[in-house]
What does this fold into?
Amino acid sequence: MNNKYMLTVEDVSKTYDGFKAITDLTFYLFEGELRTVIGPNGAGKSTFFDLITGRAKPDKGKIEFGFDTDLTELNEYEINRLGVGRKFQTPSVFTEHTVFNNLVLSLKGSRGVFASIFKRHSSTDRDRIDELLKLIRLDGKRDWKAGQLAHGEKQWLEIGMLLAQDPKILLVDEPAAGMTDEETHRTGELLISLAGKHSIIVIEHDMTFVKQIARDGQVTVLHQGSVLCEGKFDAVQSNPKVREVYLGRGKSNK
Amino acid sequence: MSSLSTRHKVELIAAGFISLFFIVIFPLLNAHGMVSDFTINLWGKYLCYALLAISVDLLWGYTGLLSLGQALFFSLGGYMMGMYLMRMIGDLGQYHKPIPDFLVFLGWTELPKFWKPFSSFPFAFSLILLLPGLLALVFGFLAFRSRIKGVYFSILTQALTYGASLMFFRNDMLMGGNNGFTDFKFILGHDLRSATTQRGLFIVTAIVLLLVYTSLRLLSHTKFGLVQRAIRDGENRVLFSGYATAHFKLFIFVIAALIASIGGALYVPQVGIINPSEMTPDKSLEAVVWCAVGGRGTLVGPIIGAISINSLKSWASRAAPDYWLVILGGLFVVVVLLLPGGIVSIPARLKSLWQRVTRQPSA
It folds into this structure.
């Protein structure tokens, strides 16, 4: 891991109708890092992703990708094409398409209207999809409609769709939501194996899961739209401010 | 995968036979007096409606954009064709003047400037494509850029067609006012009142429908088709997968406008009239009902819907003219509640019902 910034967020604020969703947030992500972001409900975690991916524009502040690409000037698909992939909290897959076609649509490549009319699958495309299907353990269900998959499988498919785009940054919003303990653990292993090749930010509530994926990496705690503290998992967990934020709201999230 | 390809083969063979019937056999039967001129003319009208229904379904069933403005594009195509047909009347009108009757009635002695080029069929034909295409391009660009979706898109398209109909109702638009255009005589030198010309128009309509069907079928199998349906099922995911969904929607909106417009251009010489009531919002709504009843999200569905509902309408307007709207509304409710997949979903439903019935004794 070198010390190159993959993502720079400095002094960013965003208000919605007077509600301060994000206040003076500063956040850096190193290349190849796996960062976990936690925080109570309403801490601004989803808004944080919205701002990075172009769904929302900051009122002020700087959001840069890599060295000097200003993300605040770009829209969702332009940011995606730069290499920023986002997984939503509720699995968002194309329910009427087969698992295979979900991946076809996500494969890296031209995204234009006319290119899509004349596009044919190459054998490299097929190989890449086969590889991904194995990785997300859906190779037996390639011809299933995505809508027929179990909740956990949909989450995995969506992760597969992100990987098909071969993004530089992966933004993952509560990947373990609705998964069994075993599925959660496997998801954690998958994310750990992806770190290094990709830079990853994971938003998560499940502390067992956070502990698993954070290992000795950095954990960022968001509270009321800004960074409350940042550090190793154990340090963060024993931080009195963090305990107060969580416990003070009657949420123990052990 | 193999079952998919057999299904495609069945569909291909069925489409081939039906096209053969409409393009060759039906007109032959008419030429030999076994199908009346009235019937073939009526079916020509149904096939034009089928084009309108396909244009609605391409947007609604395939892309999730419920446009209530397709009747406008249909009518614009009709009006462009109508202008050419009005010029072909020459001085055979009621007033025996070289300009259309309604202009004489309004006190005009000379042809208004914008009417002049319509004496040329190639000009009229290019406007049949250009005018609705450009309108769809500009309107779609603005609507999709502002991310207008769902019911707002429906309302906006409905407002567009309503506004246009009000404009066309005005006499000073010089497009025939509420009477529109009628009393056509010739198309490309052929007498529109002769059975041969009407048969020719029917054949052309059937061929156009076949071409539209085939190209859209091919398009739906490309990656474009996948993106299109993905937009319907989860536009955010498409956007966050790097696709400029607005560009895709705009492309489809323009294509749909062109299909509707060609349908309208073929419709006018066969029914012999075009007036602003064709572009009122309820005409668009009717086309939506054809789609829903036939089966949206399929290409056969809108064709079946347009033909079956309009046959029913022809029958009802003789048998029970006062109840037609009640029948249509009732049908729509029944389909939405009991048969959401429309008529085309009946075979699959019967099959699953049959499987349940035959499986039960053993269970």
Observations:
- Residues 8 and 98 of chain B are 54 Å apart (CA to CA).
